[in-house]
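Hello,

Our lab assistant flagged a job as stuck in the queue for most of the afternoon. It eventually completed. Since we weren't sure the result was trustworthy after the delay, we are filing this so someone can double-check. Below is the sequence as submitted and the structure that was eventually returned. Let us know if re-running is recommended.
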Amino acid sequence: MQVATVAGFPSFDTGQFEGAEFSMSKGDAELVVHVAGEDDVVVTFGRLRWHEFTALYNCAPWQVQGAYFALAEVVESASLARFLSEDKASSKAYTALHHFRVFLDEHGCHEVFAERASIERRSRSLVGQSPNKSLERTREG
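-- returned structure --
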């Protein structure tokens, strides 16, 4: 199985990794990776068709290859080929699918079949912040 790193995460000490959240909406998905003292790293998957999470202690060494805090693509994926051959829908919700993988130490491995994927940084203040945060600060201060 050949794995190609598509994009590495922005540089940070892996000890700063605080956790991750995976969410889906309208056929797309985001894997938000929280890094202490840094902006979040967000992996966006467009036209997601399948997702699997494997907890750290159940991950095989081959799941880490090329995907350690990185977005990787499994080239000539047998599981993706099987998925495509079993998709009997008359109208497909995608034009082409790729098998992407992200391994997060102390967390586990996320694997997806999606049309596209990208990585960006996002300010933590935009993710999960209460709309009344300024009011909360006033009360605390």
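-- support follow-up --
The delay was a queue issue, not a problem with the job. The result is valid. The radius of gyration is 17 Å. The chain has one domain: 2-84+91-140.
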